[in-house]
Amino acid sequence: MMPQMKRRGFSLSEVLFALSLISMVAITLLGVIPAAIQATKQAGHRATASRLAESCIEDLARSSAPLGLSPLPGVSLNGTDYAL
């Protein structure tokens, strides 16, 4: 039997295994980030559209034209002009 040796560090195979594991996790996360950014942009667009629709509904509810609706002017929301 060989004498007991003091273990002072990691072997090359342990370091390579750890690096490969870390790189696989990093590659997976890098693939998810663009999808998350796209989903965030779409959520922002949906929120803007929802606020615009609510604004239009409120304008229509406030209008007192009994025989029809008068054309609404364009709406500006967050610095963006929308034509109705």
Quick overview:
With 84 residues, the protein is mainly alpha-helical. The chain has one helix and two strands, in the order H-E-E. The protein is rod-shaped and about 95 Å long.
Describe the structure.
With 84 residues, this protein is mostly helical. It has a domain at 31-56. 61% of the residues lie in helices and 7% in strands. It has one helix at 12-62, and strands at 75-77, 80-82. A two-stranded antiparallel ribbon has the order 1-2. The radius of gyration is 30 Å and the shape is rod-shaped. The chain starts with 11 loop residues before the first helix and ends with a strand. The mean pLDDT is 83.
Write the layout of secondary structure elements.
Layout: H1 12-62, E1 75-77, E2 80-82
Antiparallel strand pairs: 1-2
SSE sequence, one letter per element:
HEE
Uncertain segments of ≥5 residues (pLDDT<50)?
none
Sheet-strand content, in percent, reads 5-15%
Shape: rod-shaped
What value does the Rg take, in angstroms? 30 Å
Number of helices: 1
How would you characterize the largest beta sheet?
Answer: 2 strands, antiparallel
Features:
1 helix; 61% helix; 84 residues; rod-shaped; 7% strand; 2 strands; two-stranded antiparallel sheet; mainly alpha
